[in-house]
């Protein structure tokens, strides 16, 4: 037991504890939650030599300003993030993503903004000292489930760390950022509710991401999708990445914190391999959908996993 | 027995039991749900992330890293439905309700042309079956209500319904576990907590397939029970 902690000097817009997610509870109305960007989450833990199950801090757009009031730690930030380290002598260092840094007592980390992306991650060596609920430290703000009473991190909060810094070296990962506006999808459960013309348009037109986008869902704006059968169905279980179309014909992509059941027809489902790419898109950006078959989706998911394993395997010691 | 199996994206399977919504069909869904959970628990089936039963469907979400759609479909097709059992998991609950907290009783009485006391009488006599739990943690969708009390949703949903409110629409009855917006006709309120975040082993009181009866309590009893929790 140590009392190492960060003090929150500025909480950021939406900063929460997250991990892989809380599984096996959807039949009780509890969605899995967990990190939006799985790849960045895994790299964040790997850079500070943590187990992949360890919880991290996820932030969106503007991140927190944290002061290490007590203790020494090692941290890493992943995603595409602009941040600075301000040491106790008031010297400012511009931070680089995808590498670890030592942090001493009195140092601050100022996470200014995510760059052309929505989510970023902060991991610390040994992890955060938070209490899991049903085997996970993921936060579901809507139902106040998870650490910090299920709420976003707020100003003056103390964020406790499990361990003092032990590891001498720092590490860096080589992560390339791919720009791609085409999201691969599979046909949805109610794909045939939509006319032939609408089905074609869905795969041909661009959709703009609106401001009504958060961890729960992403509302899109574009060509109205006409439903020729029924705009309501019997409520059924939801899987993240489902693209549902309510009566107004504007699609909503259900994301990590989705309701557990829902009653709108689903035109498509995002391929698992493209989920991280999708959720890093920000309001105002345009995306389009490409239809693929199950076999290809499985193949590209394997490639996605192989790519993450390779990045983690190739993590190198720096100075 | 399901009528149709299909894929949802690359990491989900939907078992479709047909279009009807009744307890018989839903019991079949829950039997399959229990079986998949049991097989997962016994480690005969790996990579299952979530299993979500609804009125007439079971949706299985799996970890594509560990298993794939073909393997799950083969597993589902090999199940002998005659051997699946429900009784072992079924619980009977009595949940206290205070009808003094009704928000729509007056209006319901007018629409249905039934005396308020008689509405309460019919509601408190019903044995409800938990069809499914969801949307938010612990939120049960139950049925079937006596057809004398069938009502549509409110034309204008309320912005705020207090936690514990019991609502009815058509043949269904629900309990709002959290303060939330909603369009159901509110007939009363329960002091019983449906979801307990402090309980890691069994945070949710009800399970799909359980049965629920409501027991009428006074405002005083409501307050006493609320204070106990």
Structure description:
- The complex is a heterodimer of chains A (319) and B (229).
- Helix content of chain A is 14%, strand content 31%.
- Chain A is built from 5 helices and 22 strands.
- The radius of gyration of chain A is 20 Å and the shape is elongated.
- The relative contact order of chain A is 0.18.
- The model of chain A has no long low-confidence stretch (mean pLDDT 96).
- With 229 residues, chain B is an alpha+beta fold.
- Chain B has 2 domains: 4-88, Gyrase A, domain 2 (2-Layer Sandwich), CATH 3.30.1360; 92-228, Cyclophilin-like (Cyclophilin, Beta Barrel).
- A 7-stranded mixed sheet of chain B has the order 5-13-6-7-10-9-12, covered by helices on one side. In chain B, strands 1-2-4-3 form a 4-stranded antiparallel sheet, with helices on one face.
- In chain B, strand 9 (165-169) and strand 10 (172-175) form a beta hairpin.
- The model of chain B has no long low-confidence stretch (mean pLDDT 94).
- The chains are: A alpha+beta (319), B alpha+beta (229).
- At the A-B interface, strand 16, strand 19, strand 20 and helix 5 of A face strand 1, strand 3 and strand 4 of B.
Salient structural properties:
heterodimer; A: 319 residues; alpha+beta; Cyclophilin; 7-stranded mixed β-barrel; 6-stranded antiparallel β-sheet; 5 helices; elongated; B: 229 residues; Gyrase A, domain 2; 2 domains; 7-stranded mixed β-sheet; 4-stranded antiparallel β-sheet; 13 strands; 24% helix; 28% strand
